[in-house]
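Lab notes, practical 5.
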Amino acid sequence: MRAAAPLEVTRIARAIHPLFDGTGALHGARWNRKGQYVIYGATSYAGALLEILVHSNLGRVPKGFASIQIHIPANVLIEELHPEVLPDWDDPDGEASRAWGGQWYEEMRSVVLLVPSVPSGGIERNVLIHQRHPDFPRITATKPTPVRWDKRLFGARREVQRGHK
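Output from the prediction step:
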């Protein structure tokens, strides 16, 4: 499908690497094979945070993360995978999703692929951007800004005021 309207994507990653670059996925991930340049993002800031939280497993406030907003213009070719098309999309080993996404990448079917987010049970959508696709130069990104984490996500408790529970 061609996007009828622009799509805004959020990417959160460690700021020690360029955020608008797919080299971080070169080792392979859920939706791509080793050696494939894919930029991962989410259709919402909350979805991007959720992905970082499920993969970091730190138990404390992460340091050194930044976010960017990625602008995908209207009329860019976007493919969307619906969960019923790939029944094993959420398998813990990721073999089925990696094979499916790897084929999407190799066939260059679109510059953008929307896929279900595993930690959200498929409610949220992750966005894969094919960095080697001819339409990639049409996609732009903001400068990185530091992520401000809510400490309550990591078990930090509020101090109980006297007389209140």
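Observations recorded by the TA: Helices lie at 45-56, 95-107. Confidence is low (pLDDT under 50) at residues 159-165.
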